């Protein structure tokens, strides 16, 4: 029979091993994409696949020559960071108002905003495409920034609302007694206290914008196409070029994976808002 201490160690070991197994399963597609990007097209489609091969950098050179990686990466940066900034400018005051000055319709408004995320994007593709065409926003970074802002605004407001609700109201009451205006409360009290929550919300929004493919493919052609559109260009009627597709995907994923790795603490904090009271 195992002692209580041995049972605890065994449970810890089993839990840790299970967590590592899940992590490896989730990471394996990224690992396979990475090593495939260094193969030739023949090696990439060989059966059975080989883990031992002579790596080549030709695929990355072809991707840059054919697709202009830097241009697509620049478009991704502008649309992701630009839409996140605008969404925060709108979302912070909105979340502040609903968290500290709620009305009878506050919950209804929050639920309505959440319900917009349940609508299939393809359901509003035609009207948004027509509006973009009529206002000259097709294949423009401005058009994507507007769409990405509207796409992530409900999530940003929900996350900030949850975080603001956890702030002690006594601090705001003390600020009001000192004569602080609502603007002073936001800038001098709420923002400094919630900088961690705002940062994690912004990081999540950037990642969602960076990975967005549906609107990028349907509203851009060449000038404003981000990295997601660049990846899709390697799927053609002639077939899939697996090695080049993997190289393009690696180049597209690398910046945001590295960015997310360094900011993982803030991301976990943002994804667990309200989980522990």
Secondary structure topology:
Blueprint: H1 4-36, H2 41-44, H3 58-67, H4 69-100, H5 106-116, H6 125-134, H7 141-165, H8 169-177, H9 182-193, H10 195-211, H11 214-219, H12 227-232, E1 235-236, E2 239-240, H13 242-262, H14 264-271
Antiparallel strand pairs: 1-2
Helix pairs in contact: 1-13, 3-4, 3-13, 4-7, 4-10, 5-7, 7-10, 8-9, 10-14
Summarize the structure.
This protein has 14 helices and 2 strands. With 277 residues, the chain is an all-alpha fold.
The helicity comes to: over 70%
The number of helical segments is 14
Low-confidence stretches: none
The major beta sheet can be summarized as: 2 strands, antiparallel
Q: Distance between termini?
A: 38 Å
What is the string of helix and strand elements?
HHHHHHHHHHHHEEHH
**What structural class do helix, strand and pairing data support?**
mainly alpha
* Beta-strand percentage range: under 5%
* Overall shape: globular
Give the neighbour order of strands across the main sheet: 1-2
Mean pLDDT: 85
User: How many β-strands, per DSSP?
Assistant: 2
CA-based gyration radius:
23 Å
Structural summary, described in words:
The mean pLDDT is 85. Strand 1 and strand 2 form a beta hairpin. This protein is mainly alpha-helical and 277 residues long. It is globular.
Key descriptive features of the protein:
277 residues; 74% helix; single chain
